[in-house]
Amino acid sequence: MSFLNPLFLFGLAAASIPILIHLFTRKRPREVAFPSLEFLAEVNRSEIRRLRLRQWLLLLLRTLAIAALALAMSRPALRGTSGLGGGGSTTVVALIDQSGSMGATTAGGTLFAEARRAVESVLATLGPADELLLVPYDEGPHPASARPLADAGRLRAAVQGLTVTARATDHTRALEFAARALGESHALNRELFWLSDFQASGFAQGAAGLMQAPEGPWGRSRVYVMPLSPGSRANVGLTDASLAPTEDGNALSIAGIAHGAKAGDLSVEVRDLEANAELGRGYLAIPQDGEASTLLPLARMPARGGVAIIPDDALALDNRRVFAAGPAGAARVLVREDGPATPVRLALEAGAPASGLEVTAVDAAALVTRIASADVVVLDDLPRLGPIEEQAVLDFYRGGGGILVVLGSKADPGFWNGSLLAELGVGSLGAVEPAAAGAAWRLKRAVAGHAVLAGFPARPGEPLSTATFHGVRAMSARAGKATTRVLLEYDRAHPALIESPHALVFAAVLDPGASDFAVSGAFLPLLHQCAKVLARGTAAGSLVPGERYRAPAGTATWRIEDEEGHEVPSELVAAGGATRLTSAPLERPGLYRVLQDGALRNTFAVNPAPQESDLAAVPEAELLRAFPAGRAQVLRPGADLSRRVREARYGRELWSWFLIAALALLVAEMTLARSGMGGRMAEPDAA
Amino acid sequence: MLDPAVVARLSHLDVRARFVVEGFIAGMHRSPFHGFSVEFAEHRPYMPGDPLKNLDWKVWARSDRLLIKQYTEETNLRCHLLMDLSGSMAFQSPRAALSKFAYAQSLAAALAYLMLQQQDAVGAMLFADKPISYLPARAVRSHLDELLKALGAATPQGRTKLGPALHELAERIKRRGLVVLLSDLMDVPAEVLLGLQHFRHRRHEVVVFHILDPDEVDFPYTDTATFVDMENSARLTTEPWEIARRYRQRLADWSAHYARACRENRIDYVRLDTRTPFDQALLAYLEKRSRLL
Lengths: 687, 293
Hints:
The complex is a heterodimer of chains A (about 675) and B (about 290).
Chain A lengths: L1 E2 L13 H8 L5 E5 L3 H36 L2 E4 L10 E8 L7 E2 L2 E2 H14 L6 E7 L14 H9 L10 H13 L5 E8 L25 E6 L7 E12 L2 E11 L4 E9 L4 E10 L4 E7 L7 E5 L10 E5 L6 E6 L6 H7 L7 E6 L1 H7 L5 E5 L6 H12 L3 E6 L5 H6 L1 H5 L2 E8 L6 E5 L17 E7 L1 E7 L7 E7 L2 E7 L2 E5 L15 H14 L13 E3 L5 E4 L5 E2 L1 E6 L2 E6 L6 E7 L2 E8 L13 H6 L6 E3 L6 H8 L1 E4 L1 H22 L1 H4 L6
Parallel strand pairs in A: 4-7, 4-8, 8-9, 9-35, 17-18, 17-19, 19-20, 20-27
Antiparallel strand pairs in A: 1-3, 3-36, 5-6, 10-11, 11-14, 12-13, 12-15, 15-16, 21-24, 22-23, 22-25, 25-26, 26-27, 28-32, 29-30, 29-33, 31-32, 33-34
Chain B lengths: L3 H4 L5 H14 L13 E6 L11 H7 L3 E5 L6 E7 L15 H18 L3 E7 L3 E8 L4 H11 L8 H11 L5 E6 L5 H13 L3 E8 L1 H5 L6 E5 L5 E4 L1 H25 L3 E6 L4 H15 L1
Parallel strand pairs in B: 3-4, 3-6, 6-7, 7-10
Antiparallel strand pairs in B: 1-2, 4-5, 8-9
């Protein structure tokens, strides 16, 4: 017998209350003068044994009644469903991992197919009063129904309809969801079946960290950990495939990673997705348990996009990586500058078109005419804008276009503070401040984990590069505005790169006499990532499954298609005065096309997250340790799964019996007490 | 209705006695006073004109001589009131207007008044574990003051020893008559009954007024209590409501035993509690007297 609310067992201490009351509340009897004690003494002598027996019996009944009540509240229950008719109901939460790694192959197919069969075995254990909540999960839980279902037919259909996704894994979120679902159940038995490959990268702490289950009713639930192992955990995956600028033509930057695989040369084939023609072939020298990258020359630049393919291994998902190419695959950047080419334009133009940026330098007149087709406008250290181009830029920004404003030594604070900076709400521009003699500023990182700064090793507070600034453009960031934040700074009083919705303001004097930042290694990637983030929302070469495509979008008919030409749901979302095209979460890896009024506007790639390539699992012992002792056990799919699960369930809850016993004891106590009160209650005899 | 609660408001014993008796008589349809004489003195020869009812028929039957019975006194009956003064008689419960002693005192005074009104001779004996005072029976009206004075001065005291006291009193009363015992009979029944039989042996007629307090009978106590014996200060702590039923049964048995034994010995037994109206006791006395004369 077990107790479902064992804390109430402390209530057994209350059983001592009648004894304590008996001992400590005995009143001092009052004295009564009486003519003769002869009869009293005689009756008392004969009655005293019975009286004492009755008193002790009453005390015992009261103590037992309270004890039975405490036991009833602690919900005692018997295990096993055979002996007592199986009156207890069961709520089952089945967490089934459908992340990309569950597509790993096994002898019988894939891990996910095994998981589906295991869930069907679990379904077979359910009785008429039982219910199950099917929760497939990857980055997050996707419950098949809002509430647990008792309809076995619907549940089987839901299980059959499950498919593996390409998304990454987050076990913790799924477990939190399961804990909540179990917590809402009032069934006698609460069970969690957790079917997964328990990929270590799916836990926040990874394989080395100590895993801890989130708060939940684990003390009243049973957890069945059902680990599924692929045929081999050795796996090699592509982590990057992006066009790279070279001096002698077109090339594809290929990166791969090996997990548990032997070192060797990995064959890589690149094909044009549209023409289905080979673009190149080569090898990637993969070390054991390590990463490698190479540049693979391409016969020609694909018109819209291509795919890099490596031979099949344990996980097919990461053996193919697509990339966007051509004009549609690049972000269109207009650079408005005065005079000769500036370091900003030169840096943005470097590597095009392989860089993914299509850069065009424009003057005031061209800006107005071409701004409608641009994704990003860069205003490069202009003293001021003419009225027409100022209005064009403001309209472009208000329409959702991305703007990068570089404010150097030429910028006129009087104009910018009253114009675009006020519109962006990022603060106000000041004068150029020289550094103290012998001193210089450095550009330091102010935030962690921003897409613009992805790949920079500096942590917040550390310099982004070794470049120095002898003079800076003073900026006072507007305090307290939630939509703006400082990404880079010279010091706390001098912000450098300020972000506002789809706009970046870079206050930097890049003249050779004032700074060497323009020739530092951080300059080019910083500007490229600024432009890409403004155009696509990410600096990465491709999106990962589950992300949404977001881009500025004017009034038109928009359509997003996947590789097979199937439409991906999308909508125009107006927020902050701008309209952006936003897709539904993108599930399938591949090359997607964005059509504006039927014409190709853009292409973008979706590739699996690199962490899904690592098939290393958390040890089973550590999984069990994450739960309260004795609450979790490893359960392997097999013939005796149903028997083991049924035997572990509580067949019957006994609290009602204990409650009845408590009531019966109380009734007995009252009856006994009233029988003793005959002398007190009854009319005196007419002796 | 001669309610003891009303009588209790009268402070003087003589007033109480008069109130009880006159109230009692006023409620009767026929006067109980007939003026008999019961004390035989001598015979004299029959003279024509003598009432035939005074003719001694037994002598005529034995000797064929007509003799008239003559009486020496005018009194009708010689009565002795035996009053128990033991400590237990002092008990008075909240429900009673009089203590057992005060009830017996009032009843004795009323009986004495009634008897003297009937020209009966009345004496009194007060006793506890032994005789305390004794007033011989006399029929003069002035004797009432002495009786009331003696009754009024009495207080309950000491332990009950009815048996020896009754024997001693039986020896002391030479001439046969009526003996009225007012007591709670809190003693060994066998000894009490032996004492009463002693009176019967001396050819006295006996009336026992068994006086109890209502709480003594009903035993209405509920909370745990320590009972203290009024005669020997013994203590007993108990749960009254637990033993009440058995106690009442035991008291009833005890009382029934007295009633049965008295009946067997031709003793009138009257059970009274201190709420019983006095006329019930007076009627019992008058019935007894009417049987005697």
